[in-house]
Design a protein that fits this description.
The chain is built from 20 helices and 17 strands. By secondary structure, it is of the alpha+beta class. It is flat.
Length: 634
């Protein structure tokens, strides 16, 4: 049964069209945000300067304006897509019921996108669509809806978006949503004589803690024709001569399965509503719209060279029809030769203006003075262009307290300290979004857990947290840090940590590639070492032959492993280690068998060499004695 007090509430809400107190504020914000992000109907936010600009001139300026707002908004939104790429996010849902965990995993997979698409689901929705909602309409709601199925089938909850225009009224108590009343555009069949005509109407939905109610407009004549019979959970009502079919549902999950998208509270409404993440830069968006409009107008109408040229007077069409200032003398006809200009002009590149050679050279005319190009001053244009660039920088500073994402080569343009300070400012700006991100993930997963039949009293552990360091550095910044770490002789574990971050950027979105990297990184002998350090270690006696051979043949060994064990990267660590050890031993044995003793091809006995050496020593001693005797005799 539908509660009577709820029917009364619905009837009054439809009749009075009551909306929440800040409805005008949130819908105007959503409209302006969407205009600046998409560029759609952005010219409606241009303002006419009535004292200097007529309606025609203003219309012309709107046609010539090519706003930079979409490009500026895109540059402010992009860093938020980096948040979900962090590889150190800790998320878990530990349930005592293994079957329930399996069902939740299935629900997460089918939450968004195609049911057969393995790369979609809850995580994909959060890192893509949720960001779009956050910036376009932070006061919109997301309702988790699902269709009833057999008890043996897994439910498929889906996100249903309710814009700020559709969310007519709602109530919060202690920051918990109590109910949400929405109005949607609706098409229903209406009888026009004997014809069925599709007609625009209204549809309303009330989301409450333990139930939801759909209210759909219908035509009684069409129901009579189709002999429609209401179900047990349906009833018909009439409000202001309009007929509605009310359908009652009881999900009984204990709370309203909906949440509001925004996380930055609006000071204008004392925190009752929300603004989008770049709201603090809106003043620069509005200024850029005005300045860009003026610059486009200036560039179109004035920023081009003007030609000044001497020209010969037009003599007319013939001797009888002489030209007099563009008019045929004695008539009111326009001269066809000069088309009313009164002077001869070029009509194509083949035309030549012939000047007779004067008898006296002093009467000659300097041809260089026949024409001249006058260029407009560019000071104003340069000022407008520089001001637009400044507005872009100021926008980034307003949102992130940093313009790091605007630098073309930030790791070389700034010192390490400046980079760290800028990144900390960016983390401070994005950190509240990460909290909202985690909050939404836990809310959706909690709802999925409830849909499996687990009650609030049963134990469940649902967690989702971001690391304190979001690691939003670009690949170029990380490469710069690695270079500095190498030149400063930083410890190998620090260089290894930077290398892991670089790998995270390279293999972004490639889960299998990232898995292969981590496995290979685990078995690589000299992680974090420079090439000079590795060379020194290889030549020393403190590194085992196994390690040296593994390093020297690393790629070949892993190529052999991949051929023999296609699922090697999915195995447990101990099993992987056994395989690596076995594959390396093959190379060790091969190298040992390849080492052959040196063979001497001489026929002389080794002892002969010793006797020869002894004889040579005796001969040398005897010669020395003879020399000394000879000297004494002399």
């Amino acid at each position: 049964m539908i509660p009577t007090e709820k029917l009364d509430f619905i009837t009054k809400s439809i009749k009075n069209q009551k909306k929440h107190d800040n409805y005008g504020r949130v819908t105007e914000l959503a409209k302006e945000y969407h205009a600046h992000i998409s560029g759609w109907e952005l010219d409606s936010y241009l303002r006419q300067f009535v004292m200097r600009e007529t309606e025609e001139m203003f219309a012309q300026r709107k046609r010539l304006t090519n706003a930079i707002s979409p490009a500026l908004a895109n540059s402010l939104i992009k860093p938020f897509y980096k948040v979900s790429r962090n590889g150190n996010i800790r998320k878990a849902y530990n349930l005592k019921n293994p079957n329930a965990e399996k069902n939740v995993r299935q629900m997460m997979k089918t939450f968004y996108g195609s049911r057969d698409d393995d790369n979609k689901g809850l995580d994909y929705w959060l890192k893509m669509r949720f960001i779009e909602l956050e910036f376009n309409d932070p006061n919109s709601f997301v309702v988790i809806e699902w269709e009833g199925k057999e008890a043996s089938e897994v439910l498929e909850p889906r996100p249903f978006e309710v814009t700020s225009f559709e969310a007519w009224n709602f109530e919060y108590k202690y920051d918990e949503l109590q109910w949400l009343f929405c109005r949607f555009d609706w098409k229903y069949i209406k009888m026009s004589g004997n014809k069925e005509v599709e007609t625009a109407g209204d549809k309303f939905t009330l989301y409450d803690k333990d139930f939801s109610i759909n209210i759909e407009q219908f035509d009684p004549k069409y129901h009579d024709k189709t002999m429609f019979v209401p179900k047990l959970n349906q009833v018909k009502i009439e409000v202001d001569k309009k007929h509605y079919l009310v359908t009652y549902f009881e999900p009984n999950i204990g709370y309203v399965p909906a949440f509001r998208v925004g996380y930055l509270r609006d000071s204008v409404t004392n925190g009752k509503t929300y603004v989008n993440p770049f709201h603090s830069a809106m003043t620069f968006f509005r200024k850029s719209l005005k300045v860009v409009s003026e610059l486009d107008l200036t560039m179109t109408l004035h920023a081009f060279p003007q030609k000044w040229q001497y020209a010969e007077k037009c003599k007319g069409e013939s001797k009888n029809r002489r030209c007099d200032g563009g008019i045929i003398a004695g008539t009111k006809d326009t001269c066809k030769e000069c088309k009313g200009t009164g002077v001869k002009t070029h009509t194509s590149a083949q035309d030549i203006i012939y000047l007779p050679i004067p008898d006296d050279p002093k009467d000659g005319f300097d041809l260089e003075k026949m024409s001249a190009y006058k260029y407009p001053p560019i000071d104003l244009i340069k000022f407008q262009n520089d001001f637009i660039i400044q507005l872009k920088e100021e926008s980034h500073l307003a949102v992130y307290n940093s313009n790091m994402f605007l630098a073309s080569d930030p790791q070389f343009a700034k010192t390490a300290t400046e980079i760290d300070d800028n990144m900390e400012s960016i983390y401070d700006a994005i950190e509240p979004y990460t909290e909202k991100f985690s909050e939404v993930w836990k809310f959706v997963v909690k709802t999925m857990v409830r849909l499996t039949g687990i009650t609030p009293t049963e134990e469940m552990d649902i967690s989702h947290t971001f690391p304190s360091d979001l690691k939003l550095k670009t690949l170029s910044i990380l490469l710069g840090e690695l270079e500095k770490a190498n030149t400063s002789n930083a410890p190998s574990f620090m260089r290894d940590a930077i290398t892991n971050q670089i790998a995270g950027q390279i293999y972004l979105g490639d889960d299998l590639g990232m898995l292969k990297y981590y496995v290979r990184h685990r078995f690589f002998p000299f992680n974090g070492k420079t090439s000079d350090e590795i060379s020194l270690l290889i030549s020393s006696q403190y590194v085992s032959d196994f390690t040296k051979i593994l390093y020297a043949n690393y790629e070949a060994i892993f190529t052999d492993i991949e051929k023999e064990y296609p699922n090697f990267y999915l195995m447990e660590y101990l099993k992987q280690w056994e395989i690596v050890e076995k594959a390396t031993q093959v190379y060790i044995d091969e190298l040992k068998s390849a080492q052959t003793p040196q063979i001497s091809f001489g026929t002389q006995n080794p002892t002969d060499n010793i006797d020869d050496e002894t004889k040579g020593e005796e001969t040398d001693e005897k010669t020395d004695e003879e020399d000394e005797t000879k000297k004494e005799t002399e």
